């Protein structure tokens, strides 16, 4: 496997691979998201208690679980970069942080818009909500550290350490609804073997979830390419690529 | 289909404001993220092109100077002769 992975440590190979991946990922994301969201908004049945407000679920839950998933991915990248000094791992961690921050913000906003009609309040200092807010601040801290240093290696190290310390927050978010008696409801989807949801509600959720995951992939590719270019700006292959691109534009 | 008319769909059984706030905010934030990621790409390429131009100009200036110096020293040699 190492032999197979080895060429992807080369930024040029990885840049071109990412560029080839982009249109396919974008097309798949568009297909899954349009099917999933139309199904979620128009065809999924309304909840017997929550009525149509339940449709927020189809954005809220994918956004929230992806906000944790992206953090986990960023932590793995930060670990690889700190331990083995993979330069590209730093670039991918820096690419993922803003995406994670946006998904965390979406989870918080949609959660508030769902909480207001169901709980009667936009916000409450409940364990789940508070730990998710801390996740947002962790993301903002990581973004700030990445842009705080001119030297990208130093920036990557500082942001990586913050990322790894912040990993402790992930299980806290995940299990907060079990550990504390919170207002936030327990998990309905991830109960293995026995999802407590009817299938005609579950299917559009699965499609939306895949769609949002693919969208994360698309944006990650876009930002990862930018990071590679910015970090290798003096390399000849980047210079050649830039002059080619500018020639195509004029 | 869960709705009988378009206004029914917009109304969302009385939860219209909250549902459309959620979907709107998510769409807006994601669109902004994608647009800024794409804009960064052109910005970075322009920056690299600018830096390349500056370096090329410096290199050219250095070369011109060397050439001029060579011409001057050749002239001096001629005068001395």
Query: Approximately how much beta-strand content do the residues of chain A carry?
Result: under 5%
Category from helices, strands and their pairing of chain B: mainly alpha
Overall mean pLDDT of chain A: 90
Radius of gyration of chain A: 20 Å
The low-confidence parts of chain A are none
Q: What percent of residues of chain B are in strands? A: under 5%
Assembly level: heterodimer
Distance between the termini of chain B: 101 Å
Number of β-strand runs of chain B:
0
Give the overall pLDDT of chain B as a whole number. 91
Q: Could you give the count of β-strands of chain A? A: 0
Estimate percent helicity of chain B. over 70%
SSE order of chain A, as H and E?
Answer: HHHHHHHHH
Rounded to an integer in angstroms, the radius of gyration calculated over CA atoms of chain B is 33 Å
Low-confidence stretches of chain B: none
Helix content of chain A: over 70%
Distance linking N and C termini of chain A: 43 Å
Q: Which two chains have the most extensive interface, and how many residues on each?
A: A-B, 42 and 30 residues
Summarize the structure in words.
The complex is a heterodimer of chains A (250) and B (81). Chain A contains nine helices and no strands. Chain A is mostly helical and 250 residues long. In chain A, helix 3 (57-84) packs parallel to helix 8 (199-231), helix 4 packs antiparallel against helix 8 (199-231) and helix 5 (127-148) packs antiparallel against helix 7 (169-179). Chain A is globular. The mean pLDDT of chain A is 90. With 81 residues, chain B is mainly α. Chain B has helices at residues 6-11, 16-80. The interface between A and B is large, with 42 and 30 residues.
């Amino acid at each position: 496997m190492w032999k197979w992975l080895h060429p992807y440590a080369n930024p040029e190979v990885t840049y071109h691979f990412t560029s080839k991946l982009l249109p396919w990922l974008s097309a798949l994301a568009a297909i899954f998201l349009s099917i999933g969201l139309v199904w979620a908004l128009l065809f999924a049945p309304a909840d017997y208690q929550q009525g149509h407000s339940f449709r927020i679920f189809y954005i809220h839950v994918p956004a929230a679980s992806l906000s944790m998933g992206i953090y986990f991915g960023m932590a793995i990248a930060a670990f690889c970069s700190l331990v083995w000094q993979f330069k590209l791992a730093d670039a991918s961690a820096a690419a993922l942080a803003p995406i994670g921050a946006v998904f965390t913000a979406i989870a918080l906003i949609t959660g508030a818009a769902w909480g207001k009609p169901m709980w009667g309040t936009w916000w409450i200092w409940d364990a789940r909500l508070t730990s998710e807010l801390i996740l947002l601040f962790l993301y903002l801290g990581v973004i700030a550290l990445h842009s705080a240093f001119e030297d990208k290696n130093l920036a990557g190290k500082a942001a990586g350490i913050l990322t790894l310390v912040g990993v402790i927050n992930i299980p806290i978010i995940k299990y907060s609804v079990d550990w504390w008696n919170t207002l936030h409801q327990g998990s309905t989807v991830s109960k293995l073997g026995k999802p407590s949801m009817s299938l005609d509600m579950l299917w559009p959720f699965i499609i939306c979830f895949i769609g949002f995951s693919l969208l994360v992939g698309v944006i990650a590719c876009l930002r990862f390419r930018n990071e590679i270019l910015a970090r290798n700006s003096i390399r000849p292959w980047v210079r050649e690529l830039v002059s080619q691109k500018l020639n195509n534009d004029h | 289909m869960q709705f009988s008319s378009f206004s029914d769909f917009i109304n969302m059984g009385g939860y219209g404001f909250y549902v459309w706030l959620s979907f709107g905010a998510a769409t807006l934030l994601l669109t902004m993220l994608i647009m800024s990621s794409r804009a960064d790409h052109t910005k970075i390429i322009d920056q690299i092109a600018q830096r390349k131009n500056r370096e090329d100009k410096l290199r050219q200036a250095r070369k011109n100077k060397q050439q001029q110096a060579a011409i001057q020293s050749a002239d001096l040699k001629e005068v001395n002769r």
